[in-house]
Amino acid sequence: MGPRRVAATPANSAARMPGQDPESPRHAASPSERAANPEDENSRLTDLVMNLEEKVSSLETEITVLNSELEDCRQVVQEMASAFGGSGIADIRREMEQMSIQIGLLQRAVSNVPAVAPDAGARLRIPEPKAYSGARDAKEVENFLFDMEQYFLAANVEDEARKVSTATMYLTGDAKLWWRTKYAEIQANQVRLDTWALLREAIREQFFPENVEYNARRALRKLEHTGSVRDYVKTFSALMLDIRDMSEKDKLFTFMEGLKPWARLELQRQRVTDLGSAMAAAERLTDFNPENRKDRQTTPSPSQSKRAGRDRSGVTPIEVGETASPTLRAVHRAVLVGTSPRRTSRGRRRRAVDASYATAHIDIGTARRNSC
């Protein structure tokens, strides 16, 4: 007897391997099975065809999406190629080369830096500007503003708001009270002082005294070179700080006219052409005062006073009192006449010696007569 066929049951179909599933496209039904169940076979084939159509449709959709993405990629590549064409790529290469050179230089610099950190105290210390108390003096105001600008430059302060806050910290006294009022107005949006230029002009408008230039011009017109040259130059420079609109020719003319004649002639001889060179040349001059020299010549020195009693011949004349005899007085007068400047030096010496000799003999004779 042949082998007995067992009918398919759900348990048996579940126990089958996946590759032996009759609905699987890999499972080929026998002709006897297809002949026994033609309707089942048709339905199975219909299901297979529908599954295949669905898979093909999904594949076509995926292919369409891939094609669109590929087209987008191509467009992006073309745009990048057009943007970074031959010149763009060359520029990028040059930039990369420059960056590589800079990196090499930085590496060398880092390698040359000493391992020990520098001392913080060795760094430059910037002196702080002098505080301004609100004095209504032109030089005080200008010096404060100038010191603040130099401080900003040395401390590398570039932000305008920081400049304003730093400058206001150096206001004291009346200037601090003025700034408190201005600060309240700034908070109320009544005024704007958010830059150093605006704050500088506000300080000048508030504290700069009136008629400064007029008073400086009046003082400059009366200025004369009466003392030393350096004092004159110093006073002239201080007055010129308050005069802003005088031309260079007028400055030079006014400076030259105030000098003494000898100093003016010396500067004219040096052919000075501007105020700066004229001041420098004037400060190099040695003070010369003819009046002082005249006084020194007329006032005799102690040595000259001692020599005044001597004759030019070097012999001191003998003084004769009122008690001397008439003969002695006559000889003394003869000696004085003989020592006149109109005589020669040799004659003066001889007469002076003779007079001294005669005077001595007269004194001896007088003494003998008195003793007798």
Automatic annotation (TrEMBL):
Q: Which residues form the signal peptide?
A: none
Report the Pfam families cross-referenced here.
Retrotrans_gag
**Which top-level group of life is the source organism from?**
Eukaryota
The segments labelled Disordered in the record are 1-43, 283-324
Q: Where is the composition biased (Basic and acidic residues)?
A: 284-297
**PANTHER family hit by this protein:** LDOC1 RELATED (PTHR15503), RNA-DIRECTED DNA POLYMERASE HOMOLOG (PTHR15503:SF45)
Name the species this protein comes from: Sesamum angustifolium
All residue ranges annotated as the Retrotransposon gag domain in the record: 167-261
Protein's name in the database:
Retrotransposon gag domain-containing protein
